[in-house]
């Protein structure tokens, strides 16, 4: 249980974000006589690259990451940092290959893009999957992580405290639209990073630095915890080939084809702001390994040297330390009062930014991809009203899922387990649609349907028959196998049902692999080509160092 000072700082922060969010939305609306749907859902397409990059990062990094990446650092070392550094490669793909089509086509949602490239059936299916994934992955899991933190630190009832936070987040998100979301996310990213740096420095200082930590790992015969890529015999279930083959399937869906993430790019002022904003996020994604994962590894060595008391965590059903609450334990044992309040604010930042971003994307898809498709003459006011209602319903449904999702021992594993079974067909139709002229609408539609059903079947088999081949296959390799099946399926079906391009679709695929690099670019370091090469080089060097 924490003191009044820390609780006061946390409450002050929540109120501050609420006020800033409301002012950001209302300030935008005072400039126009009538609120436009584009102004509400896409911030009038005026977003610049710093706001885009910070908002992308904030929407991605939730309380789940702070809590679960520290847990993974304690359990397996730097291994799960692959989800952070590999993201840089997919953000380069987003910037170079997808952003130009998204902005050139003037789409409001990614299902809208899929209809222009393929057909209406593909749009409807992606809308359904995207709304469902936003509710489960982006909102419900984040709520669960936030509830665990608030219960552990303050002794609050998990469901009541999360409901209060969600209502506050929903107020400024629903009132202010994407403008309020991006403004608050920019602030929340800074607070989140500050908090993460504080706990990282505290753990580093307590351990005495890098070399004492490494010495403990050597003595414990656990030096492999510093390696990002593991051998095939590693007991983590995530060998190097699973990372290299499996992560791109998850990453391309998440960063290039998920409405909750990409909506920030769709609100870009122009193509260069969209591209550089995505790359800016790629550079930010280098940080989590050092400020989210590494503190968990320091916690492991502090525990081994008797400098961190984990007795309050208890043990799991296998007799191992229940590491689910390791992050909150580090906060209470390594930081003084006052700084603990800052860390709580950082955790709330992750929670609120994730929820606000997902609610905004859900309301956008419901308004444009469902309501407007059935009522083409709907006014902007009607679209906004329907979007707000959808956000409220989505928030209620997410709260109802919390008891079910709490069964996962690792929240981060739970999220990626779900993604691994829904991403393959979506990644497939987007990749082939953008890079292959022959990808047909009928093939895309059938691939989405069959691939999704197959993913659900494999997911259920994994849970019902954990000792079978399906249950023993690492989830990222299963994602890769499902992707290969979907690719084969769409290619064969495209030959059986040949493509018939429309005036729109014939401009929505790359004619040459070099075309993405020929677009107009800013001079100097702001050139997206230079930034892409620099980001690629930095991540490759980091992998060489930590291999």
Textual characterization of the structure:
This is Sodium/solute symporter. One of its GO terms (cellular component) is plasma membrane. It is a multi-pass membrane protein. The protein has 547 residues and is mainly alpha-helical. The chain has one domain (4-373, 381-514): Sodium/glucose cotransporter. 74% of the residues lie in helices and 0% in strands. It has helices spanning 4-29, 37-42, 49-60, 63-76, 82-104, 110-117, 120-154, 158-207, 210-219, 240-256, 259-266, 271-284, 288-304, 326-334, 339-374, 380-405, 411-435, 441-464, 469-472, 475-496, 528-545. It starts with a helix and ends with a helix. Residues 28-34 have low confidence and may be disordered.
């Amino acid at each position: 249980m924490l003191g009044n000072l820390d609780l006061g700082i946390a409450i002050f922060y929540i109120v501050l974000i609420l006020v800033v969010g409301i002012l950001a939305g209302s300030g935008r609306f005072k400039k126009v006589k009538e609120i436009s749907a584009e102004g509400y859902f896409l911030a009038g397409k005026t977003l610049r690259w710093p706001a885009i990059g910070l908002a992308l990062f904030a929407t991605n990094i939730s309380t789940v990451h702070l809590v679960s990446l520290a847990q993974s650092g304690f359990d397996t070392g730097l291994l799960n940092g692959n989800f952070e550094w590999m993201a840089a490669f997919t953000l380069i793909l987003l910037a170079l290959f997808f952003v130009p089509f998204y902005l050139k086509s003037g789409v409001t949602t990614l299902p809208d893009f899929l209809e222009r490239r393929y057909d209406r059936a593909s749009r409807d299916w992606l809308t359904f999957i995207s709304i469902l994934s936003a509710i489960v992955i982006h909102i419900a899991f984040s709520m669960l992580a936030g509830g665990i933190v608030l219960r552990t630190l303050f002794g609050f009832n998990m469901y009541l405290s999360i409901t209060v936070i969600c209502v506050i987040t929903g107020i400024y998100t629903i009132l202010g639209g994407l403008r309020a979301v991006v403004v608050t996310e920019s602030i929340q990213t800074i607070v989140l990073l500050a908090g993460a740096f504080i706990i990282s420095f505290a753990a580093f200082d307590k351990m005495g630095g890098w070399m004492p930590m490494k010495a403990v790992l050597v003595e414990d015969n656990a030096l492999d915890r510093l390696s990002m890529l593991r051998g095939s015999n590693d007991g983590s279930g995530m060998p190097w080939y699973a990372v290299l083959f499996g992560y791109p399937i998850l990453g391309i869906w998440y960063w290039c084809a998920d409405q909750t993430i990409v909506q920030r790019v769709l609100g870009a002022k122009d193509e260069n702001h969209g591209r550089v904003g995505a790359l800016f996020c790629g550079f930010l994604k280098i940080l989590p390994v050092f400020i989210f994962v590494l503190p968990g590894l320091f916690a492991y060595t502090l525990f081994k040297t008797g400098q961190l008391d984990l007795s309050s965590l208890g043990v799991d059903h296998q007799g191992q330390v229940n590491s689910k609450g390791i992050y909150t334990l580090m906060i209470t044992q390594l930081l003084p009062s006052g700084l603990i309040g800052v860390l709580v604010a950082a955790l709330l930042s992750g929670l609120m930014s994730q929820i606000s971003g997902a609610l905004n994307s859900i309301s956008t898809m419901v308004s444009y991809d469902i309501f407007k498709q059935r009522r083409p003459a709907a006014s902007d006011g009607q679209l906004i009203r329907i979007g707000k209602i959808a956000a409220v319903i989505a928030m209620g449904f997410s709260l109802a899922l919390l008891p079910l999702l709490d069964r996962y021992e690792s929240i981060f594993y739970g999220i990626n387990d779900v993604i691994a079974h829904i991403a393959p067909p979506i990644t497939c139709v987007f990749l082939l649609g953008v890079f292959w002229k022959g990808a047909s609408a009928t093939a895309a539609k059938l691939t989405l349907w069959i691939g999704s059903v197959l993913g659900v079947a494999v997911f259920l088999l994994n849970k019902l028959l954990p000792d079978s081949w399906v249950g023993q296959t690492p989830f990222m390799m299963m994602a890769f196998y499902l992707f290969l099946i979907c690719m084969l399926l769409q290619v064969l079906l495209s030959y059986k049902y040949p493509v018939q391009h429309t005036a729109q679709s014939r401009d929505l695929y790359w004619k040459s692999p070099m075309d993405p690099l020929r677009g107009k670019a800013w001079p100097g370091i702001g050139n997206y080509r230079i930034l892409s090469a620099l980001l690629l080089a930095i991540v490759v060097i980091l992998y060489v160092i930590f291999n």
